[in-house]
């Protein structure tokens, strides 16, 4: 396999990375979230910094320390992540959207802790804004990289997202596969580019997978920007 060797391949570039889950508030003590650990996004931030980029890491709540040298912007909700990500979009050369953004949030939130009551409780959910879709629709010359976390039809769904969100590269994984997914230290990824390159990787440490993702992004840029 081919690794981009040497450092400094992203010198002068600004890379914006989103990572981790979002939390969608119900009341002061309750929220909706998902199992994302943030490890994949943090590893990509570290790998991009290692190639000399200015790295802005926009992170939902995680339990890990940001890699040294990166600018960290902490957010909680999908709305906050949207606002932070869009505020850096114009300056970005590359955007990597590894965050597991909530697709829905509670339509109504409570200022006080909701007391339990007899019978059922239904929470009405409304859609959040798709950050990556918004970026794809407004793309000028940024390189846009998305993730596709799927449990079935991985290639088909990933290709659909690549095209409908106007992406340059998508990183797909099957979250039900042993050694892949949200929580662990390893991942099994396949990358697809807009110009038809497909790379399937074996089970790798997330830090190693991040190096290959950065390497695939650099190769794509070399084909397109020179
Ligand atoms: N994404 C985003 N904003 C959202 C939802 C998703 O930017 N509100 C981004 C994710 O960060 C990821 C990509 O879109 O890079 C794909 O996310 P995924 O959840 O796999 O796909 P969705 O488009 O949300 O579709 P679905 O969940 O129905 O598969
Ligand atoms: Ca989703």
From TrEMBL:
<comment type="function">
    <text>Catalyzes two steps in the biosynthesis of coenzyme A. In the first step cysteine is conjugated to 4'-phosphopantothenate to form 4-phosphopantothenoylcysteine, in the latter compound is decarboxylated to form 4'-phosphopantotheine.</text>
</comment>
<dbReference type="GO" id="GO:0046872">
    <property type="term" value="F:metal ion binding"/>
</dbReference>
<keyword id="KW-0460">Magnesium</keyword>
<dbReference type="GO" id="GO:0004633">
    <property type="term" value="F:phosphopantothenoylcysteine decarboxylase activity"/>
</dbReference>
<dbReference type="GO" id="GO:0071513">
    <property type="term" value="C:phosphopantothenoylcysteine decarboxylase complex"/>
</dbReference>
<keyword id="KW-0210">Decarboxylase</keyword>
<feature type="binding site">
    <location>
        <position position="165"/>
    </location>
    <ligand>
        <name>CTP</name>
    </ligand>
</feature>
<keyword id="KW-0288">FMN</keyword>
<keyword id="KW-0511">Multifunctional enzyme</keyword>
<keyword id="KW-0285">Flavoprotein</keyword>
<comment type="similarity">
    <text>In the N-terminal section; belongs to the HFCD (homo-oligomeric flavin containing Cys decarboxylase) superfamily.</text>
</comment>
<dbReference type="GO" id="GO:0010181">
    <property type="term" value="F:FMN binding"/>
</dbReference>
<comment type="pathway">
    <text>Cofactor biosynthesis; coenzyme A biosynthesis; CoA from (R)-pantothenate: step 3/5.</text>
</comment>
<dbReference type="GO" id="GO:0015941">
    <property type="term" value="P:pantothenate catabolic process"/>
</dbReference>
<keyword id="KW-0436">Ligase</keyword>
<dbReference type="GO" id="GO:0004632">
    <property type="term" value="F:phosphopantothenate--cysteine ligase activity"/>
</dbReference>
<comment type="similarity">
    <text>In the C-terminal section; belongs to the PPC synthetase family.</text>
</comment>
<keyword id="KW-0479">Metal-binding</keyword>
<feature type="binding site">
    <location>
        <position position="113"/>
    </location>
    <ligand>
        <name>CTP</name>
    </ligand>
</feature>
<feature type="domain" description="DNA/pantothenate metabolism flavoprotein C-terminal">
    <location>
        <begin position="10"/>
        <end position="219"/>
    </location>
</feature>
<feature type="binding site">
    <location>
        <position position="161"/>
    </location>
    <ligand>
        <name>CTP</name>
    </ligand>
</feature>
<protein>
    <recommendedName>
        <fullName>Coenzyme A biosynthesis bifunctional protein CoaBC</fullName>
        <ecNumber>4.1.1.36</ecNumber>
        <ecNumber>6.3.2.5</ecNumber>
    </recommendedName>
</protein>
<feature type="region of interest" description="Phosphopantothenate--cysteine ligase">
    <location>
        <begin position="15"/>
        <end position="226"/>
    </location>
</feature>
<keyword id="KW-0456">Lyase</keyword>
<feature type="binding site">
    <location>
        <position position="147"/>
    </location>
    <ligand>
        <name>CTP</name>
    </ligand>
</feature>
<dbReference type="GO" id="GO:0015937">
    <property type="term" value="P:coenzyme A biosynthetic process"/>
</dbReference>
<comment type="function">
    <text>Catalyzes two sequential steps in the biosynthesis of coenzyme A. In the first step cysteine is conjugated to 4'-phosphopantothenate to form 4-phosphopantothenoylcysteine. In the second step the latter compound is decarboxylated to form 4'-phosphopantotheine.</text>
</comment>
<comment type="pathway">
    <text>Cofactor biosynthesis; coenzyme A biosynthesis; CoA from (R)-pantothenate: step 2/5.</text>
</comment>
<feature type="binding site">
    <location>
        <position position="103"/>
    </location>
    <ligand>
        <name>CTP</name>
    </ligand>
</feature>
């Amino acid at each position: 396999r081919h690794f981009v060797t040497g450092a400094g391949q992203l010198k002068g570039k600004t890379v914006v990375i989103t990572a981790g889950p979002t939390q969608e508030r119900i009341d002061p003590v309750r929220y909706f979230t998902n199992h994302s650990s943030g490890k994949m996004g943090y590893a990509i931030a570290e790998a991009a910094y290692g190639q000399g980029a200015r790295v802005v890491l926009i992170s939902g709540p995680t339990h890990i320390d940001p890699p040294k040298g990166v600018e960290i912007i902490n957010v909680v909700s999908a709305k906050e992540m949207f606002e932070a990500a869009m505020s850096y979009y114009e300056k970005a050369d590359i955007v990597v959207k590894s965050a597991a953004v909530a697709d829905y949030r509670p339509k109504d939130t409570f200022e006080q802790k909701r007391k339990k009551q007899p019978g059922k409780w239904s929470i009405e959910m409304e859609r959040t804004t798709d950050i990556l879709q918004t970026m794809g629709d407004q793309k000028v010359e940024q390189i846009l990289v998305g993730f596709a976390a799927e449990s079935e039809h991985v290639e088909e769904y990933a290709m659909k997202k690549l095209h409908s969100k106007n992406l340059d590269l998508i990183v797909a994984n099957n979250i039900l596969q042993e050694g892949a997914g949200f929580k662990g230290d390893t991942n099994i990824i396949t990358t697809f580019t807009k110009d038809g390159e497909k790379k399937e990787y074996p089970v790798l440490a997330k830090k190693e997978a991040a190096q290959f993702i950065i390497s695939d992004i650099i190769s794509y840029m070399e084909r397109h920007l020179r």
